[in-house]
Structure formats: C-alpha cells, structure tokens
C-alpha cells in the first residue's frame, strides 16, 4: 500500500513520522512524507531514505490582519496541491502528525474520501490536529491527559534505537561520545530548537558541576550561536544525530519538555529536570504531568532556572545513586514502548474498515 505521512517543523512531529515510516517500509509498504521547506524534515526525512514532498508553510494567524484574511485562500491552494498528490501518487491513506503540512493533508484526504489517521504528540493539541480529529474517528494520542475526544492512547512512535536503549552499555556510549566512562553524566538539551535560558544557566554552572565530579554533554541547538567545545568534563555540540547514545550515556538530564523528548527519556529510564518552553499554548507543561506524578522527573519554570538551582537541586541528585535509580524506575514505569506498532495497527484498521 502507499501512504502519505504529513508533519514537520520540529522533532516532535518529524520523529514519530519517521518511526512509523520505517515500520511501514519494513512491512513492504511505500511511504511518501509531506512537509515544508523550513522544518527539520528537509534534513531528517531524506537522511532516512524517504521521499519528501513540500508545500508552503502556513502559520495560523493569531489575530485579525491582512495575513488572516488571505489565510483561507492559501489553505485552499495548499489543499488542492495535496489533493493532486493523493490522486497522482495513488495514496491509500493519510496519516498526520500535526504541524503546518497536516491541515491541508487532512482536508485533501477528506475530499478524496481516503482513510485519515491523526497522531497527536502533545498533551494539548494544536490547530491542525484539532481539525483532523473532526474528520476521522481514528485519533491516536501520546499522553493520557490529551484534550482530543474519541482518541486512543497509543504513546509516542519511537525508533527502535530508543526502545532498545537499555541494551546499550553506558560506559561504551560515553567513550563513543568522547566522554569519561567513569564520571556521572548530565545531559543538557533544549530540544531541536535549543533553549537560551538552559544554555546560559549551564554555562554559569560549569565550575560547580566540575567541582562535584559531574561531566556534561551539552547540546545547544543550531540557533544558539555557540561554538562546539570538547574538553575534560564538558562537551558542547550543536546537534546530536545519536540521541539514543546520548541518553544511554547519561544519568540525568536538563531539558525542554517536548513530547518526543519526554517519551524518549521515559523509554530509556532517564530522569530529568524539565524546563517547559515558556511561549505558546503551554503544552510542554502538560506533557510531563503523568511522569512527574510517578516521580520520574522534576519541573521548573524557565524564569526560575538558575545556577543556584543547579547547585542546590540537580547536583545532589546526580551525586545520589539511589535517588537516580528510583527516578529512573519511575520514569520507565510510564513509558509506552510499542507506540509505533499501536499506531500502525490503527492505520491498518482504518484502511480495512
């Protein structure tokens, strides 16, 4: 069969799309991805060997403006383009993961009377998936507190590298990443877009962490404007293509609370201090509700993250093997490891009913 998988922009949309795409390809199906020219999909999708088609980026206007007045026309044109793709490529079903490319894909799929499946990664759905959920009964969600009706909890589709991360030797992963295999390790990441507050706080905390015997793997993101550094006790990189190795190498993390990150950390049993992105609809705070309740992580507002907090809270946790072990087990207790298989099963049910 031939499927169109729509999504993109951030890792939260691209990663689950790729996880499902790889499973479908392994089962003998053909997958075409739909995104825009501005998102991570332009690099990650071809890197994984999938065809990527693009449409114009269509941000939803938040207030009355000239852009708001022409938005319906642009959406209609994008939908018409996707409709032609569905017909010309003989697509059997549409799966959307949210993001700019999904709304036209859902509308075109509905016009073409094709099966539609929606996967919502965040606990608070965006416009595209709220629209998609009105057009189909096949709606999958990542977290139990997601605000979409008639949805089924399937978890996050994860690439097999993450579901098998517990098999990766921690010391070996550290060596491969250029880290000391014997030191407690803090992973720091702001997600695919980076995080200014996190980067600044860790920079201020480097001496305190070094004095405590803790090494840092710091992923700063492509927009941070920071150089890569590799020195004893501290390694700073722009982007990490092997996040499963970075997670396996680490004992604790400081991170944004994007859906992919939360799900990957839970699957690997990595406890973390989550610093939700302070702009937008606040979905990142909701993404960690279940994990925090289980004891698998901590939460702090972006404005409250300081070097003092790292010294008073994060360093003591990293210095306690028993605390780390308890938090790791708690994080793993809320993980859903078969999200890819569950989403694929929903897709096949949609096609066959």
Automatic annotation (TrEMBL):
Residues 185-336 form the Glycosyl transferase family 28 C-terminal domain. It comes from freshwater metagenome. Residues 3-140 form the Glycosyltransferase family 28 N-terminal domain. One of its GO terms (biological process) is cell wall organization. Pfam families: Glyco_tran_28_C, Glyco_transf_28. This is Unannotated protein. Gene3D superfamilies: Glycogen Phosphorylase B. PANTHER family: GLYCOSYLTRANSFERASE, UDP-N-ACETYLGLUCOSAMINE--N-ACETYLMURAMYL-(PENTAPEPTIDE) PYROPHOSPHORYL-UNDECAPRENOL N-ACETYLGLUCOSAMINE TRANSFERASE 1. HAMAP family: MurG (MF_00033). One of its GO terms (molecular function) is undecaprenyldiphospho-muramoylpentapeptide beta-N-acetylglucosaminyltransferase activity. Keywords: Cell cycle, Cell division, Cell membrane, Cell shape, Cell wall biogenesis/degradation, Glycosyltransferase, Membrane, Peptidoglycan synthesis, Transferase.
